Amino acid sequence: MAGRISRQFIDDLLSRADIVDLVDSRVPLKKAGKNYQACCPFHNEKSPSFTVSQDKQFYHCFGCGEHGNAISFLMEFDRLDFVDAVEELASHCGMEVVREENTASPEEQRRQQQVYQQKQDDYELMAHISRFFQQQLKTAKDKETAIDYLKGRGLSGEVVKRFGIGYISDEWDGVMNTFSNNGQANQQLIDLGMAISGEKNRPYDRFRGRIMFPISDKRGRVIGFGGRVLGDAKPKYLNSPETRIYHKGQELYGLHEAKQANKQLTRLVVVEGYMDVVALAQHGVDYAVASLGTATTFEQLQTLFRTVPEVICCYDGDRAGRDAAWRAMENALPLIRDGFSLKFVFVPDGEDPDSLIRTQGQKAFETIIDNAMPLSKFLFEQLMQKVDMSSLEGRAALVESFQPYLAKLPDSILKDSMLNEIANNFGTGSEQFLAKLTKNIKASAVKKAVTKQTKVTPVRLALALLLEHPHIANSLDDINVLQALTAPGIPLLIQVLGVCQQNPEIKSAQLLESFRGTEQGVQLSKLMCWQHHVEADAATDVFLDSIEKLLNNFVEQRAEVLLQKARAGQMTTQEKQELQAILNA
Q: Residue ranges of the Toprim domain (predicted)?
């Protein structure tokens, strides 16, 4: 690692990036005056309070308070660290990341270098292993067994290549012999889940005699593998363990490939196995993902709903499949808002999405997907089958059973409709039931915090105007006149003025970025969101007025202090001269 990312590069990147274009590619925006709006992707809401400013290159949610520039948005929305977010934004803008000499202490530089290099080495090794598996599908002595299996599953060479599918022979040291040359390499293979520690410090391959499916992260880097056995050995599917670069509860198999195949995804189908994803893609349904051997987690569902508005879970129709659907529904409830939907398809016994699409074809399968069961119907069916609807006791029990699930669901048209639907199932007394249920749910809801009004002070107003219009800093001839002032916030005002005057072309997003990770940055972010109602053409005059008020206040306060000293006969010669100058002014 040559060093940290160049500050100049970050400024150039933010000046070239268009936050409206970036956000709109992930959260569809609508024009609202000079800004753009959407329902916030970081919390659930009925009406849009998430605003993106093209002028400021800044986003802010008036509901939950999330805010930032293009880099911040990628960090929050795509769950990337700072460096990855910068690299992702640079890729989005067609730019190469520029780094500068590292100015950190030697010890910190070594630590940064180790962390960075370890990460790069891990990704590089996993990429090499993935290519090795793909090569083995062509050269292994028992390759025909693997090829026949894939052909028997109806997969073409094109699809196998698109998903990077490979093979590893049933040997103990296929990967170890190829990639291990010393103790350090052995440990890295163990750390990345490709090898298992053996007796007498002799590691051996984790994956043997399996079709290998590489698992990619959001940026297409291989971070793990799933292996499907060819015979009857157990387990049928073997997955990479948790590692420093692979966290299965946060990743989705096939998501990167689905994004590559579809510029505008509108829905995603969640299936249970790697082969289901690949088989669906083989038959034209190239928008399927798998949840990597776990129940679909909240983090995975959050990723899904940040990608598409419609998610269809396609599970087996047996008890295990319905249990998986129930867990997915519970995890998804807090994420469902108007315009977003979770649906369910249960395939017949003895079938799976792979066999279903092979026997019935793409059109028939997509018809099944089109008619998927909505979340509301699934919830109704599951809860109502557990009670006796013909008895008062059963209906009363249903009241209690619905409450925790509806309490998780954000306020929306869907929630209102479900409440009415529940009430209608009760016939007589439904109004009383609806009133009780609504009251109980509201009582359990979290109260929204009341936003405190920002107190208007000359310093706050000057800072807010500088953040929005950095060029107005040049209207102040000499910032040294502020050095003697003692009002709260003056050091930060001087610091911001200095940054603006040293960089005359700096924009709002760049200015805020220069304070990232500091306490001052937190304060400035809050001021960036402040609605001060000063029009752009009046910004310079109001800014200079604020500076003048600060100076006048200081002069008045200083004069009063000196006058008190004069009355007490405690003035120095220098203070007498200072007071005379103030009175003359």
A: 266-348
Banded model confidence at residue 583, pLDDT cuts 50, 70, 90: low
Q: Give the pLDDT confidence of 183-214 residue by residue, as tens digits.
A: 566 889 999 999 998 777 788 999 999 999 99
Lowest mean pLDDT, pick from 19-23, 258-262, 451-455: 451-455
CA–CA distances in Å: residue 361 to residues 258, 353, 530: 19, 11, 56
Please state the pTM of the whole predicted model. 0.69
Q: Could you please report the per-residue DSSP string of 172-234?
A: SSHHHHHH--SHHHHHHHHHTTSEE--GGG--EES--SEEEEEEE-TTS-EEEEEEEESSS-S
Task: Extract the tokens encoding 373.
Answer: 């069961």
H or E segment at 115?
helix 106-139
Q: Are 453 and 523 in contact (CB under 8 A)?
A: no
Q: Which of 403, 485, 471 is nearest to 437 (CA)?
A: 403
Identify the residue whose tokens are 């793990």: 224
Q: Are 218 and 256 in contact (CB under 8 A)?
A: yes
Q: How far apart are CA 223 and CA 161, in angstroms?
A: 18
Q: Whole-angstrom Cα distance, residue 468 to residue 455? A: 18
541 φ, ψ to 5°?
Answer: -65, -45
Helix runs in 262-339, H state only: 274-282, 298-307, 319-332
Alpha-helical runs (H) found in 425-534: 430-444, 458-468, 490-502, 508-513, 519-528
- Among the listed residues 72, 40, 187, the one whose alpha carbon sits nearest the alpha carbon of residue 509: 72
Q: Which amino acid is at 505?
A: E
The Cα–Cα gap between 278 and 282 comes to: 6
H or E segment and range at residue 269? strand 267-271
| Of 569, 576, 529, 582, nearest in space to 56 by CA | 529
Residues 6+ apart with CB under 8 A from 235: 229
Buried b vs exposed e over 202-240: b needs ≥16 C-beta within 10 Å? ebbbbbbbbbbbbbbbbeebbbbbbbbbbeeeeeebbbb
Q: Which structure tokens are listed for 463?
A: 């800072």
Q: Which amino acid is at 520?
A: Q
Tokens linked to 250: 């946060």
* Three-state SS at 459: helix
What is the per-residue pLDDT across 279-308, written as a single tens digit (0 to 9) for each? 999 999 999 999 887 678 888 998 898 888
Residues written for the chain: 585
Give the C-alpha separation, 68 to 231, whole Å.
53
Q: How many helices (H) and strands (E) does the chain have?
A: 24, 16
